[in-house]
Write a structure and sequence with these properties.
about 230 residues, alpha+beta
Length: about 230
């Protein structure tokens, strides 16, 4: 399947996992970079007992010593390397997995928040691959990766914040929806009214496709368990 949008599509999306577009100069600089997404009819709410138990088991498995060396594992390290390549200091803005592990250490465990957040956390900790979620009703066209242009904002809400020109963003075919590796813009995230979600991830060099697929299937399995 070919990706649509103003750039170069990533390769070979399996099953429901689709490849977004990547701005041409960005794809030339980082040929292994890809944005992958999947749409699912689901809503969020309180997690069922089985999901909360799964979080507790993850908390028990991930203690201080393991957390310290985790950044040196291949997938976390690949994201750290990519952070540096795009000018982000991973010791200042932590990679998604390191941020989750730090929160677990500070809070004494992975605390259940809601079905979606729990699914994203479990998939991230089990595979090292981060996913984010958008309300599909707030997405126009296909998602992709590009640099922000002049005078753009993150999202289309009246209170949308400006994004610096040149900052790498996840965008639909109308505007940026999130700064790369950051939270999605207000007005585009999943709420209690959401019935259809778009989950997306960013794959960088050194992250095998099979781990991306595993993270996706983990998210979908948990969301459908609710």
């Amino acid at each position: 399947m070919e990706a649509s949008g103003p750039g170069v599509g990533a390769a070979g999306p399996p099953d429901d996992l689709r490849a977004g577009w990547v701005q041409e100069d960005l794809a030339a600089e980082f040929p292994r970079l890809a944005l992958l997404f999947v749409s699912v009819q689901a809503s969020s709410g309180r997690s069922p007992r089985g999901v909360r138990q799964r979080l507790r088991l993850l908390s028990d498995r991930l203690r201080g010593g393991q957390a310290i060396v985790m950044r040196q594992a291949p997938i976390p390290w690949a994201y750290r390397v990519f952070f540096r390549h795009i000018g982000i200091d991973p010791d200042a803005q932590r990679t998604p997995l390191e941020a989750a592990v730090l929160e677990r250490l500070l809070r004494g465990g992975f605390k259940s928040r809601n079905l979606l957040d729990d699914a994203l956390t479990i998939a991230l900790v089990e595979t090292g691959v981060p996913f984010w979620a958008l309300d599909s009703e707030a997405v126009e066209g296909t998602l992709g990766l590009r640099a922000a242009g002049a005078d753009e904002t993150l999202g289309r809400a009246p209170q949308a914040l400006p994004v610096p020109a040149g900052r790498l963003v996840v965008a639909d075919e109308r505007s940026p929806l999130a700064a790369l590796f950051d939270d999605v813009a207000e007005g585009h995230g999943v709420t209690r009214h959401t019935t259809h979600m778009t989950l997306f991830t960013v794959r960088v060099a050194g992250v095998p496709q099979i781990h991306v697929e595993e993270a996706m299937f983990t998210c979908l399995e948990i969301l459908r368990s609710g």
